[in-house]
# Entry
Amino acid sequence: MLGELVFTVEFEEPLAGDVNAKIWMMGDRADTPFEEMPKLVMNMTSDRFKTFDHDVELPPDSVSVTGPPTRIEMRDPLSLLGEPERVLMSVQSHFGDVPLDNVPWFS
# Structure
């Protein structure tokens, strides 16, 4: 589908127990102040996936998540990110509150 950002997150092991992951996505465009652009956070555990924009939970079907437990494909409508010219992303896994792995910010 046009108008989607499609990306894959691979894990060495499936998320299980107290292990979870967070994905941050921020849209950026020249004609909109950065602080007004959507700031998405996706919280993943072994059995659920929640997406937030500025701490407001979005409907479960806002983002499509498919794939086996170690390779997850996500499809985010660009409209959810404010039709950005570029997207900044970061991924981090945790064991409870302790960080395990971190993918630094990239665009």
Remarks:
- The first strand starts at residue 4 and ends at 10.
- The chain has a mean pLDDT of 90.
